[in-house]
């Protein structure tokens, strides 16, 4: 008897073994076209409190971490006792402008395709729970993801705890799990959790930095990612 959980139909009617039962996505810069806005909000928050304004590169590098950790790295000259104010100013700018950003073109089709072929889907993000829930409402994605984790619920990337909790909740082992993200934090988290990873180059981190961690594939567009997942996931 064929186990339907380990095979799926291809578009041409043949059957290909399913390699990954769980596909976990980062959010910002991977599914959501928000990198530029996050950078601006980090810069504006630093400016608000009179701190040196980080460069685009420095602000983009911290995307994917938990917010407090990310801002501490992006603005290292800010004294620890002023970190809560920096966080408050970032949140002020983000929640005032988050309506400006949307899913990358092709993401809804990609997610529908994966669900149709029996994959479980999850989100592993550096966002807060409040931020992710608002984003999911905005883009009408309720019910698409089987599980989600945010940085304020567990350890920040690249600690593997976020992925480990998702795998435990869904009962899927590391060798059947694939992490997809746009930062080295995502790829390192996957490595630390014993999972495979795919990088996308249209988000926050540089191509060469992503490739240095030897992901299974590097996608330059959502269409590239969807084609690879159809063939290899």
Describe this structure in words.
The protein is 42% helix and 14% strand. With 233 residues, it is an alpha/beta fold. The strands form two sheets. The chain has a six-stranded parallel β-sheet, sandwiched between helices. It has a two-stranded antiparallel sheet with strand order 1-2. Helix 1 (35-48) packs across helix 4, helix 3 crosses helix 4 and helix 5 packs parallel to helix 10. The two termini are 22 Å apart. The relative contact order is 0.17.
* Global outline: globular
In sequence order, what are the helices and strands, one letter per element?
EEEHHHHHEHEHEHEHEH
Low-confidence stretches: 1-14
Question: What distance lies between the first and last C-alpha atoms, to the nearest angstrom?
Answer: 22 Å
Mean pLDDT: 89
Largest sheet: 6 strands, parallel
The number of helices is: 10
Structural class: alpha/beta
What portion of residues belong to β-strands?
5-15%
Strand order of the largest sheet: 5-4-3-6-7-8
Helix amount: 40-55%
In total, the number of strands is 8
Radius of gyration (Å)? 18 Å
Summarize the structure.
The chain is an alpha/beta fold and 233 residues long. It is 42% helix and 14% strand. α6 (129-138) links the parallel β4 (120-125) and β5.
Descriptive keywords:
disordered N terminus, alpha/beta, six-stranded parallel β-sheet, 8 strands, globular
SSE blueprint and pairings:
Layout: E1 7-9, E2 15-17, E3 22-25, H1 35-48, H2 56-61, H3 67-74, H4 83-97, H5 107-116, E4 120-125, H6 129-138, E5 147-150, H7 161-170, E6 177-181, H8 184-193, E7 196-200, H9 207-211, E8 217-219, H10 222-232
Parallel strand pairs: 3-4, 3-6, 4-5, 6-7, 7-8
Antiparallel strand pairs: 1-2
Helix pairs in contact: 1-4, 3-4, 5-10
